[in-house]
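Input sequence (382 aa), recorded before submission:
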Amino acid sequence: MRRILALILAAAALTFAAAQDPLKVAFIYVGPVGDYGFSYAHDLGRQATQEHFGDQIETIFVEDVPEPEVEPFIDQLVADGADVILGTSFGFGDGILAAAQRYPDVIFGWGTGYLRSPNVFTYMADFYQVYYLNGLIAAALSESGSLGYVGAFPIAEVKRHINAFTLGAREINPDAEVNVRWLYNWYDPAGATEATEALLAAGSDVIAFTEDTPTVIQVAAQRESPGFSHYASMVEFAPGYVVSGQLVNWETIYIDFIQGVLDGTYTNSNLEDVDYFWLLEEEAVELGAEPGVPVAEAYIDDLEAVVIDHPEFGEINAYDLVMRRLAQMTESRENFDPFLGPLVDRNGKEVYADGYLPTIGDLVSMEFAVPGVVGPWDNEPQ
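Predicted structure, C-alpha cell format:
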C-alpha cells in the first residue's frame, strides 16, 4: 500500500512540475528589434505567439547577432535552458546545423533556410506572390517605366522576389525595367540611402527593396516617389508615399509549430521533412501598406486610371487586376502563379516549360534573372 501511495505521489509531483515548467522558446534576430523591418516583424510574431500560448511557453530573444558568430549565442541559450531555438536569418544556417549536432535534445528552426536534420526544421513566410502584386502597382504608377530595387544579398530568396516584382511590372508595361542595386548587408541604412539616391538619380521613379530598415521609402519620399512597406507597416516613416507593401504574420508559423511540439507531433527526432513555406493562402503574408489596407486609398484612383488589354481578363484597370490576382493566389497558387511556364530567363533560355508550375524546391533554389531585370546577378546561369 505504501509503495502504491508513493508512486501516486511521485506521479503527482511530476505532473505538477511539468505544469510549472513552460516550454522555453528562444529567438535569434540578425538585426535590432527596433529595425522596423525583418527583426521587428519576427518579434511581433514572438509576442503574438507568447500571448496565444500564455503560461504554456516562455519566450526569450537575442538581437543584433552577426550571422557568422551565431554559435556562441546558441551555446548560451542552451545553457539557459532553451528547449526550442529559432534562428530567423538565412546566414545563421551553418551555425544552427553545427549546433544541432552538438545538442541533439534541442529543437532548432532555421528561418528562410533549406537544409534540415532530425532536430532542425525550416520555415519561410514567403513574399514572392506579394512582390508580384507590388510589381503590378509599381509599373502602373511609374511614368518612366524604370523601376528600382535595393537588394540585401543576391541569394535565391531575394532573386525570387526581384523576379516576381519584375514579372508583375511587365504584365502592366511589357517594356518596364527593374534596376537592381545590392547592399551585401541586411541592415545598412547608409548603404540603403546611397543605393536609393543612385536609383532615383538614374531615373527610377518607384522603388522596392529587401533590406531591414525603412530607409528606402524615407529617401524615396523626399523625392515624392512612392514605395512599399516591407515586413511591417512603414506608413509612419513616409506618410502619403507608402502605396502598398509586403506584410508578414510570422506567428501563423510559430503557433502551428509550437503547438506541434506541445502535443508531441514534433520532436527532436522527426523534423527532417518539416518545411514550412507558407504564402497568401495560409495567411502567413499579406498585401498592404499596413494591415487590412492592400492599397493606400490615396493611390486607388491613379491605379484605376491605368487600363490595359489583358490576355486573360480583357480590358481591365490596374487596381482591379491587382485585386483579381490577389484573390486568385489567396485561394491557391494553383489558380495563378507568376512563375507558371512558359518562362525564359533574361538570356533567352527556357527555364520552365509551358504549363509547368514550379515546385517549392524550384522556388527556393532560383538563380536566374527574368527579362527586364537590369544589373549584376551573382551565380547567374549562362
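Checked by second reader. Residues 201 and 256 are 45 Å apart (CA to CA).
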